[in-house]
Amino acid sequence: MTSNTTTDTPMFPLGSVLVPGGAIPLHIFEDRYQRLMRRCVDNEEQFGVVMIERGSEVGGGEVRSVVGCLARIVEHEELPDGRWAAIAVGTERIVVEQWLDDDPYPRATVTPWPDLDEVPAEDLVLKVTQLLHKVHSLARDAGHQVPPNRLDLTLLGTALSHQACQLSPIGPLDRYNLLREPGPVARLESLCEALDGVAEMFSA
Questions:
Q1: pLDDT per position as a tens digit, 4-22
Q2: Which end of the chain is more exposed for a tag (fewer CB within 10 A), N or C?
Q3: Helix 172-179 / helix 157-167 crossing angle, nearest 10 deg
């Protein structure tokens, strides 16, 4: 998808936030999302993931976020009873321009939203790395399970910032706000603020 195109895209609203480069496991049992999976698998097509701001993942009628992420299915299995088990990986950020009819599943016209082309300063990357290590240590000491702190410092700009967000023990709303930042510098700066808040909470 190029930066100036829009498309009719199958959409999967979730209670969590997917970022480019992140992976998400899916257990699909609703008929409408089974149809979505069939379309995407048969046509090797991506789907959009957006956060549910209010409501439930099951049944419809939820309030959906405007900014999301395209996802590519990398593993899938269709079970005998029609359910699907799948793993999808985020590929690029998108903005929902217009929601279309939900028949037979949620669909929207979307457009890509690429990050600003910028490289974060080394001291900012170092600060994020140190905060991640601190917060993970505090979380483990408090008995929480946290994702492995394996920030790949060979990544650049946008990829590094999204991976740092993915590794951070923060809530979906914080993660969504980070997804909405215009570029990697603002995202990492905002992530530092979020991680400072998490560290204070654990320290208290």
A1: 667 799 999 999 999 999 9
A2: C
A3: 170
42 and 88 both lie in a single domain:
yes
What is the structure's pLDDT at 63? 84
Q: What is the DSSP letter of 54?
A: E
Unique residue bearing structure tokens 């439930």 = 56
Strand partners, 55: none
User: What is the residue range of 127's domain?
Assistant: 122-203
Cα(109)–Cα(100) distance, rounded to whole angstroms?
Answer: 7
User: Strands 107-112 and 84-99, how do they pair?
Assistant: antiparallel
How far, in Å, CA of 52 to CA of 54, rounded?
6
- pTM beyond cutoff 0.70: yes
Residue 126 has pLDDT above 80, yes or no: yes
